[in-house]
Amino acid sequence: MHNPHVPKRLTFLVPYFPPDVAADGQLFALLAREFVRRGHGVRVLTWKPRYQGVTPAVSDDGGLRVSRWWAPGGKSLIERAFSALWLFKSGFWRALFSRGTLIVPSSPPGLALCAWWLSWLGRRYIYVLHDIHPELGIALGKLRPGLMAWCIAWLNRRAMARASAVVTLTEGMQERALALMPCANVVVVPNWVDLDAIKPVARASGPNQPGPEGPEGPVPSLIIQYSGNMGLLHPLEGLTRAAGAMPDCELHFIGRGARLGPTRDLVERERISNVKFFDYRPLSELGASLAACDVSAIALEPGADKLAMPSKLQGILASGRPILCLAPASSELAQFTERERVGIVVNDPNDPQQVRAAIEKLRDAALREEMGGRARSVAEAQFGVAMAADAYEKL
């Protein structure tokens, strides 16, 4: 999309899209609607919602045409293999008869295979690396080195080599991507946020908490919120145990993921009464949801550094909340937090004592206000959706 002043045709081939609440889908929705606002012709090819919502097969949202179809799920190796094959076949045929530059995420891998094949028919595509696989899967213990990992790496390299541009979220991820495919055109475009929808507001009774004197007692002096995917990327036990030892505080988990079950089990087993769980919030309620706390937590496993970056970061910054950063000090996430002075870093996320010490520092309301103000300023300066659209238009 070389000349930003000339209207373009774009097709997003993505696994999730609102009303589904998956973070990637919400991000692509913001970008797609910004392109429509700028006069580009945009179509979205996606699947029926898996997390939340019921939608028609075809819809038109203010000029944004969205086509959806059924796709299989499942967690076993056989089910995932069948799902990948289905996604490739169905995605390929629908994308073949669409027009314009394709924008395709790296997960699931079947989408990359669609784009790669279509490139041989002259189709341009932008490959968005939100995670770098198979390295991330191996680092998290989800995947062993072997045939499956080799196949994923081969597919990733082929998709990167044929892409008009490969988008990563951080400079560290850019380095890892170039190590995989040195000839690829790899650029950094951080995730983005709707600065009008998410704004700093005072904490109040909202969708994630009881009223001032409800049946669960008075509102706690400090509410810590973890909002988003509770996946294997995110170490949560140290945070949960630390909050359990601070009865005048509350910890709110909002979302789902592989670590939701173990975290619930820990809370029940240890009889922790001040940790609460809520389901994902729709995109329309995200601003109010993020405002229903004093501190926002974000966590990243040490092995995931430079292979992924939590997408919740930009929303937290826009909400004007200080960050409780649970990541090694050497990680990109921790270095960003300290460089911009928007939160406190816990070097060992699995140590409840370190987490508790950081929370104690964040009891200081003046410190929270100072960090939160800087967080909002950083969001406005670096992460608005308009800035992301500018960057994509130049690719």
Topology:
Elements: E1 9-13, H1 23-37, E2 41-47, E3 58-61, E4 64-69, H2 77-96, E5 101-105, H3 109-119, E6 125-129, H4 135-139, H5 147-162, E7 165-168, H6 171-180, E8 186-188, E9 213-214, E10 217-218, E11 222-227, H7 237-244, E12 249-254, H8 260-269, E13 275-278, H9 286-291, E14 295-299, H10 312-318, E15 323-326, H11 332-340, E16 343-346, H12 352-361, H13 365-382, H14 385-393
Parallel strand pairs: 1-2, 1-5, 2-4, 5-6, 6-7, 7-8, 11-12, 11-14, 12-13, 14-15, 15-16
Antiparallel strand pairs: 3-4, 9-10
Helix pairs in contact: 1-14, 2-3, 3-5, 7-12, 10-13
Instruction: Give the SSE string.
Output: EHEEEHEHEHHEHEEEEHEHEHEHEHEHHH
Radius of gyration: 21 Å
The N- to C-terminal Cα distance equals 5 Å
Number of domains: 2
**How many alpha or pi helices?**
14
- The chain-level mean pLDDT equals 88
User: What is the CATH superfamily of the largest domain?
Assistant: Glycogen Phosphorylase B
Number of beta strands = 16
